[in-house]
Structures are given as structure tokens and as C-alpha cells.
Amino acid sequence: MDKSITYIERQKPLWLRLIASLFFTITIVLIIHFCYTMEFSWEKKYFKGHIDYFQIIFILLFFGIYFSYTINCYFNFEKKLFKREKTIGVFKYGKWKPMPKLEYISLFAVNESTFEINLWYKKNRHWDLYEKYNIKDAFTIAFELSELLNIDLLDATIPGDFKWIDKKATKEAGEIIYIK
User: Fold this and answer.
1) How far apart are CA 14 and CA 12, in angstroms?
2) For residue 141, what are the CA distances in angstroms to 106, 123, 129, 163?
3) Residue 85 DSSP SS3
4) 103 in Cβ contact with 151 (< 8 Å)
5) Residue 163 bridge partners (DSSP)
6) What's the whole-number mean pLDDT along residues 128-135?
7) Can you tell me the mean pLDDT for 9-21?
8) CA dihedral of 93, 1, 7, 132, whole degrees rounded to 10
9) What strands lie across the sheet with 152-156, from one edge to the other?
10) Bridge partners (DSSP) listed for residue 73
11) How many other C-beta atoms can be found within 10 angstroms of the C-beta atom of residue 152?
12) How far, in whole angstroms, is CA 19 from its chain's centroid?
């Protein structure tokens, strides 16, 4: 079993990534247009005339980044470290930190077709680790992660009816068994 696992928190939907690529493309076109059309001079009137260009480029770049970033969670189980890494294309930012005392993992239903896996720590704090559109896939990922971290698993797919899963019995039976 691999001691280092990556769980992608939430990849943006395709339509958002397409909008982000449109913003980046327009930004690049404006920068190229600016470089070809600007008459460079240190006089104040040349800079004032192009401030609106810089504002538009900045705004488009901001929206491109906003619509395209993802957050990945890395766990190093041997060294008990974790890293939340923000990613925009090939650019990544994140630092390894000691893993806090983890309490449990919950499988949560956002709506009837979307399920989230949350990792809870420090009583009321949590990370949204993963989002799946199939309950079986979401359960498999949540179960494997709870086994690797050796913590409990909570089924919160039915609002107001939270049940703890008996991981040992579930593994033996091959179906979900709840603690009574």
C-alpha cells in the first residue's frame, strides 16, 4: 500500500475551466496588443492613457485564476504530514505541516447526485476532501481513507440520520453495516 496518497478536493467543472481559458486567452491577446501598439515613453501622458488597459488585464487575469484553481490534499502517512496545495495550471503552492489529531471521516450528501467526503479534526473543523457523483465511488474512497488513517467513518448521506459504519463488519460482509 502506498504511504503517500493524493486526494483532489474539488476540480472545477468543465464549463468553469472553459470560461477560465477564455479569460486567459483574452488576457494574453490584450497583453500582445498592448506591447505592439504602445509607444513607450517616460512622459506621464503615455502611462495615464494605458491605465485602463492594465485594469482590464488585471480583472481578466483575476477571473481566470478564480475559475481555474483547484485545491489538492496530500497525505504522507509515514511521517504523519499533510499538505493542502493550491494549483493553477502548472503553478502550485502549499507547505507540508504536521497532521492534526483527526477524529473521523464523513460521507455527506450535498444533493441527490453529489456526495462529499469530509475529514473532521479539532471537534468542529473539517476539510472537504473529495466530491463524487456516485455514492459507491464516494463510499469506497471514504472507506479506504478511513482505513489508512485508522479513524471512524460516518454515513451522513441522509439528512438528520447520521450512522457510524462498522468498518470491520463492512469489510467482511462486502456491504455497508452500521454500528447499532
Assistant:
1) 6
2) 11, 22, 10, 17
3) strand
4) yes
5) 155
6) 78
7) 82
8) 170
9) 125-132, 114-121, 102-111, 152-156, 163-164
10) 7, 84
11) 17
12) 18
